[in-house]
Amino acid sequence: MQLRMTNQREMILRELKKSRKHLTADELYERVKKFMSRISLATVYRNLEILSDAKMIRKLEISGRQKRFDSELEEHDHIYCVQCHRIENIDIGDNQINLAAVDTKGYTITGRRLEVTGLCPKCRKKILKATEKNKKGGKKMGCGCKAGVLSDEQKQVLEAMVKCSGPCGSKDIAAATGLEAKQVSCRITALKKKGYVESPVRCKYEITGDGRTALKA
Question: Is it true that 1-74 and 139-216 share their CATH fold?
Answer without folding.
Answer: yes
